[in-house]
Amino acid sequence: MDNVRPVKVTAEAARRFFVARHFLAPARSLKGKSKGVLEVFRRYGGVQFDPLAVAGRNHDLVLHARVAGYVPAWCERLYERREIFEAYNKGLSLVPTEEFPWFRGFPTSLRVAPIIEENRDVAKRVLERIQAEGPLASADFEREHGPTKDWFGMPTNAVRAVLEAFTAGGVLGLARRDGNRRYYDLIERLLPADVVAQDVPIVERLRHKMLSRYRAHGLLGIAGGNDILGGLGAAKPDPRFPYSPGRTVLRQQLVDEGELVPVEVESLRGRRLVLPDEVGLLEAPPEPPASVAFVPPFDPVVWDRPFLGSLFGFEYVWELFIPPAKRRWGWYVLPILFRDRFVGRIEPRIEDDSVSVLDLWWEEGFVPRRTEGFVDAMRDALAAYLRFAGADKLEWPPHLAAEKRLFRLAA
Questions:
Q1: What is the pLDDT of residues 15-33, one digit of tens each?
Q2: What digits encode the pLDDT tens for the residues 345-369?
Q3: Containing domain of residue 161, as a range?
Q4: Which residues pair with 243 in a beta bridge?
Q5: What is the enclosing helix (H) or strand (E) of 389?
Q6: Other CB atoms within 10 A of residue 249 CB
Q7: In the 8-state DSSP scheme, what is residue 144?
Q8: Which of 229, 260, 283 corresponds to the end of one domain?
């Protein structure tokens, strides 16, 4: 990588590029309903899924921030038509179906093989029933115990463990969800035969998955971070991961073949990597218009927290797992992006036919009413969020009376 001359840009250009390539300059600008949704999936390679829905599910919030008029039914229709499917990438993700051969699981991986081996009899019974009966959920089986433990060292339901292992290994897939209940079926009954039959070598799958992380973020660094590059093996060759030459080798191959281009950003330590067809945008990014987006906790925009601090001067912490007494902000809080700056945080809740704003926090020195274009952009964002939530009322707590007046929506 040292032999490849990097592109050099200013911090301002990097910020403008970052929001533009994320379809956030302006927000909610992609048209075409399902077409706009698929455009996001194809740029990112996948969108992280999280079932927590207090403010909207993560993938829906990612799409809402980018696709005009987005409602969750658009993504659900694509899922039902098998144009997207669930796979493990950076966590559980929704991925375009045509990319299944590259996201197919590894049946012999360290994560999958031991679970199947430890629960061999249960695995055999589960697979036979699904083969005979079609899609089933873990609740359709008698609960069974085995040696497999959960994160806290307690015995877990062996049926659920093998269902998830078979899914991670590419034997089963998710046929549908009923709330948070997942129904599993044989992968060959869920996806087109030509897609399932395509056999991509494991190293090529790893390269594709690594490239998908850089595709999704847009300005990810060389190191990337274990939480961002997880599932791709160790940085260097490791006997525990015999199928992987190591992340360093995979990344170097992508650079050598021109799939990624090194970049040096003013004021940032270390090189970053961008897609070759986005270099032009990086070197001449547009000035972002007055637009507000609410960014969810697993959005690629906030994956690299040190990057946010260095380039945007924004400290991002998701406080879900922090005890309430120690939180500075709140439980499910969404950063507020205005133009190419993070200017605050909002904590919304979707409750039946209304949205409640539990709290708002502005970044130091940011004054909404004195910032040109912000008030109207914030009103637009709140109105769009109400439509996304299927709500017709916006509720404010007493301590936000000034914000309620400032951002009053038209009847």
A1: 999 999 999 999 999 999 9
A2: 999 999 989 999 999 999 999 999 9
A3: 112-194
A4: none
A5: helix 374-389
A6: 17
A7: -
A8: 283
